[in-house]
């Protein structure tokens, strides 16, 4: 039997990774991100991006992670450009 650490999972929960485009900048480091299928969701910046002062503007392509339990919220993990 494989453990969560062997599968590369820390919580035992899989994160869904997607790419999207920032469509709106909101207060408190929150962003509206539009996915390729047209769906918009609310996203916040991950800790490392906040620590390194990575700035995001409308139109930036970003990589996001979302939980399979709540498909309306996500975490921005990488700025593609």
Q: What does the model show?
A:
It is a single chain. The protein has a 5-stranded mixed barrel with strand order 1-2-3-5-4. It is 6% helix and 44% strand. The protein has 1 helix and 5 strands. It has one helix at 47-51, and strands at residues 16-26, 30-35, 40-45, 61-66, 73-79. The chain starts with 15 loop residues before the first strand and ends with a strand. The protein is mainly beta and 81 residues long. It is globular. A hairpin with a 6-residue loop joins β4 (61-66) and β5.
How do you describe this structure in short?
The protein is globular, with a radius of gyration of 14 Å. The protein has one helix at residues 47-51, and strands spanning 16-26, 30-35, 40-45, 61-66, 73-79.
Q: Sheet bearing the most strands, described?
A: 5 strands, mixed, barrel
Low-confidence stretches: none
What is the typical, i.e. mean, pLDDT? 87
Q: What is the oligomeric state here?
A: single chain
Globular, elongated, flat, extended or rod-shaped: what is the shape?
Answer: globular
Distance between the termini: 41 Å
Q: Strand percentage, roughly? A: 35-45%
Beta strands, count: 5
Number of helices: 1
Question: Structural class, from secondary structure content?
Answer: mainly beta
**Could you give the order of strands across the largest sheet?**
1-2-3-5-4
Order of helices and strands: EEEHEE
Residues in helix, %: under 10%
Radius of gyration: 14 Å
